[in-house]
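Exam review. A common question shows you a sequence with its structure tokens and asks you to describe the fold in words. Practice with the pair below. Do the first one on your own.
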Amino acid sequence: MTKHSEAVYVGRLPDVRMSFQLMGLHARKADSNWTYPSHEHSMYEIHWMMEGQMSMLINGKLYHQSKGDLLFIRPGMTHSCTGAGPKGFTYFSVHFSVHDTSFCRELNRSKDPYYPADSSMVSAISPVLSTLYDLATEHLSDSLSSSKQMKVHAAVFELLGSLVGQLSQNASIPLSRKEEIAHQIAEHIEDSVRYIHLHGEIQESNRTWIQDIAKSLCMSTSQVNRIFREVYGRAPRKYLSETLLNEAQRLLQQTDLNVDHIAMMLGYKTNAHFSRQFKRWTGIAPSEFRLGAQHPVTRN
């Protein structure tokens, strides 16, 4: 009788499928009269004061930054800045976007943008910000080698991990019961996208999966739609489309798979159907998006 060998897991981590863009990473030294006009953008921004003093107006509220103080500005926040001391100031700024809905949910948990120099947030992320600052100043005088570019990537992942860890610990407002339910619905939707990615199947009607989510939560479909819209500001169907778009963008940016293959992986029966949907989402074709990701426009 043949004895079959056995193997068991002694450890396992989830697959990593995150797409992010790091843009506008720069250190700037400005005189006391320097100002930057009011603006907003679709990216997250970390603004770290290195020397001097400045003031930042965010959504109508004024914050004063001194050496070591940090501001974390979320997408859509209107902000402007000006010098606040007689000798000018130096700051370091990181702009980034993340195409991962659950990760962005964590980034948006706490709405407070200001973290003083002696806060646990600054203590946690200032070492990696210093690493990025050193690499940025080095890059100004000479192009970074491949190994240094990988250090930038490693530092960014460390930064994101530390940032989310601190925000999760220091969320200023505990989740309400309604928010907890909405987050469970979001997790079900994200699981649906992972299923599509693995099995290449997408349902023509959203009614079935909404009913499945409602059943698993012992709720009606109207309750699921209402609670999710109240918390997330959009319907579950819209959130599903956004999650699929994030996955499509990640595959276009981080893989060499052709568009036909990506369309199949995301459950579309034809490339034409996927391309039409992607263009409806973004205004450009998948091939144009991939080309733009390879040659990004530099931002101030």
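Now try the second one, then compare your answer with the model answer below.
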Amino acid sequence: MWLFFLLAACTAMGLSCARVCRAAAAAAHPPRVAPGPAAGPQEGDRDPELTVYETAYLSGGPRRIAEVALVSMAQQRRLLLAHTGWATVVVPVGRDAFELATLAAIGDGGQRRIPAVRGELAAADEVRKLADRLVASGLALPDGARKSLGDAVRQLKGALLLVAAAAAAAVWMAPSGTDDGLLLAWFALPVILGTATWSLARGELRPYANWATTAGERLLRRVVSEEPPDGPGRAGGRAGSRRHPAPGRPSPAPVPSLLSLAVHGPAALADPALRAALHSSGA
């Protein structure tokens, strides 16, 4: 009887590992998406540099873009981000489409909770257009690829729990005199396979695989290695650069530490007040 449990455990684990590998391969080489009217430059003719907003999306998705826009305006004293979690407009001027969307998300009242602003800004049309451009350029993963990868990893975790349950059931139903150690050793094989696959997935698919393709990750690594501490708004530019963004691709103002925020999130901010504001619930 215990062989039935072993077979079920091995089958579930094998299918789960195969799904993770297939999803990872699909994420590394996603199908090209036909560009729409607003898709912008393609992989062969695009400016090889990234804006800070594009860097933010490839590193942390739409929420990271929202955080970059909020902090950019706060560091230029056009927005006040309180540690209690409220955003207050000081100067109602937006210098690019994302800052204008931020002001629209705050509303006419001039004050709103930061989580609500961040959520609405993350779903704004400008963010979706930027995501579509990056997907069409082969730098960002399509929504389907991200979902498939996440579902595959969750299935693998479930398979590990199934193997543990099957091993316990096999020990309980094994005939008297059965060597429990030998029986559990057989069940250790699918556990080792699943654990190894999970470890490889965590190591290979981080830190950007939720959003960036392999090409996007390479570009992000180059951006991080080349950007000076107080570099220009274009994340991939060098100090003193005077390049202008391509039409339709806004470039944020040069704000210190903004690139670190785009790549690493709020934890990278040197200002503890800003970190507290972005982490606050605003309740």
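Model answer, second protein: The beta strands are 79-81, 86-89, 111-113. Residues 35-47, 229-256 have pLDDT under 50 and may be disordered. Full marks require stating both points clearly.
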